[in-house]
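quick one, 500 residues, struct below
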Amino acid sequence: MIYKNDQASLQGFLEDTSNIKTGHTPGAFFPETIEELANLLKGAVAEGRRFTMSGNGTGTTGGRIPMGDYVISTEKLNHIGDVMQIADDQAYMTVQAGALLGEIQKKAEQHGWFYPPDPTEKLCFIGSTIANNSSGARTLKYGPTRKHIARILVVLPQGDLLNLARGACMADDNGMFKLTLPIAGDLVFQRPQYSMPETSKHNAGYFSEENMDLIDLFIGSEGTLGVIAEADLMLIPLPESIISCLIYFRSIDDLFSFIQYLKIQHLKNPNNQASLRAIEFFDKHALGFLTAKYPEIPAESAGAIFIEQETTTESEEADLEALFALMESCNAMSDESWMALDRDEQAQMREFRHALPLIVTEWLRKQQESKISTDMAVPAGKIRELFDFYRSSCEQLGFIYIIFGHIGNEHLHLNILPRNHEEFLLGKSLYRQFISKVLALGGTLSAEHGIGKLKAEYLVEMYHESGIKEMARIKKYLDPFLVLNIGNIIPAAYLENEQH
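---
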């Protein structure tokens, strides 16, 4: 077991992209085996320790930042197993929590297989992506991480190892789970009784549905119920061919018409070989930031759509013709748009898509203020109303802002970029109005980034006190001594007052 308590080693664990500045810790542990990890948790109460689990620092909500607790990093638990084929169209790979997503995807592809979840950041730990139920652009076709996990090995807060295959432990008709564990003993507890929003992406609070699988309670729980130490990832055959394109529009109305037709097309064949897997959006302000690196972006564009479509050799020509016809019918700027059919050019286009956050971060460094960022999604058919509300609210207050993201899943990121502290405070106030608007539309507070510490106070608005108390009840069943990730998802006051 490696342990470090010098400030130079600890500093990196006190930050992520949330810009929370108040983290502090007495030391960090680096278990090199799952047994060492289990022993750390097993001895926590006797040794008077609480722990914050640390991913690789790519999160946006402060989940890995300790507030006085010890840190556990899984970076030494980084084994990536071999691809194990179990059918013509199915394989799996066993990985440890600290393996990098990019390395996992690379190994799968080298063997002709594909792990679909695709968060923007490739340096994230796979365990963190499971704990956060991460998604990304390809969620349109493949759904979030939850849909691609066959098994997890969870180290529970009292040190029990729970080896949980999908389908092995289901809630009964009354929503009850039953477990017998060596250390914790017999556990009987009920799934959360609140309703989930009717959005295609949702990552705010504990998952719940009738007759749900226990594995899905841990996936997306942000490390508050146990540490996901190992997982079996489900793989599918690598798609034969991809069409990628970046399409510009002079009119925002034409752009939204184009999206509507794309979605109708997607609903007709969501899972076949030739189908859309990503529809991404850039408003004119986002394109304005990107022109610093990509001067060829047309100045008269009101916005752009990036799409990825899987295809086959037989259908590629027909798919391209249908796409060009749709572009023409929606008055797209076809001559200025960018089509990529080979891997090298598609890699350049993905680089274009991922460049925006880096450019914005660089701009913010000169402003001395943090951005105000939304991660909200709404049910089908409601995204135009939310986009217009974001845009008009920011225009009225004179903010510098950008809107971009996963519009295929009715999920857009708004970044307000304050020039001074007064604008920052005004933006924070406006953020609460955005929450009210999204919840009135039946949406979710977080579609993909999770809650962490940054948004825990807002979660009460979504689930009300009754829903937060349900989460606290489950947390206390599985973590009765409050050892693990205190402050994430559930405001601490609810844990102090809630008895299981």
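The radius of gyration is 23 Å.
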